[in-house]
Amino acid sequence: MKDFRSITEQLREARSREHGPFARHLLSVQEQLTAIERGDMDGALRQARDDIELEIFAPTTFPFITRARGIAELRHAMVHNFAALSDQRPEVANVITQENVVVLIGSERGTIRATGATYHVQTVHRFTFVENALAHIRIIAAEAG
């Protein structure tokens, strides 16, 4: 189960305070998460550049594809990575926008499907836009104390 409602609500609230490109970028991230929640990976990548890049820095207990370049590789990584987890419960503590970047700072709890182990990580998701298209996603996850 993927339930990103708390995150999309925070993005909606942040968007209500922003104007211009910041609001557009927040909407793009919100739409991406809503599409992922529906299982619509193509919809999640609708606003991405053809040469989009993904970087994930996470504990080795996560059986993730940590690097991808281009729509096809990123779509494959997303399908693989989301399937590796269950009972995902992400929370966002802070939303930051600056020029062409949206940063979500928060945490996530859930279960790693392959081992059944539960996890709790602190997270930073950084979405970079070029000419109003999503160009780069960097995710950093560290085990929470």
Structure explained in plain terms:
This protein has helices at 5-17, 21-38, 41-44, 71-83; strands spanning 48-57, 67-69, 85-98, 101-112, 118-130, 133-143. It is of the alpha+beta class. The protein has one domain (5-143): Nuclear Transport Factor 2, Chain: A. Helix 1 (5-17) packs antiparallel against helix 2 (21-38). The chain is globular and about 45 Å long. The model has no long low-confidence stretch (mean pLDDT 91).
Beta-strand proportion: 35-45%
Total discrete domains = 1
CATH class: Alpha Beta
Any idea what the CATH architecture is?
A: Roll
Q: How many β-strand stretches? A: 6
**How far apart lie the N and C ends?**
25 Å
- Our Rg estimate from Cα atoms comes to 14 Å
The assembly state of the depicted protein chains is: single chain
CATH topology: Nuclear Transport Factor 2, Chain: A
Write the H/E string, N to C: HHHEEHEEEE
Q: Which outline best applies?
A: globular
Strand numbers in spatial order across the main sheet: 2-1-6-5-4-3
Q: What integer is the average pLDDT?
A: 91
Q: Largest sheet, if any?
A: 6 strands, mixed
User: How large is the count of helical segments?
Assistant: 4
* Unreliable runs: none
Query: Structural class given helices, strands, pairing?
Result: alpha+beta
Which percent bin holds the helix content? 25-40%
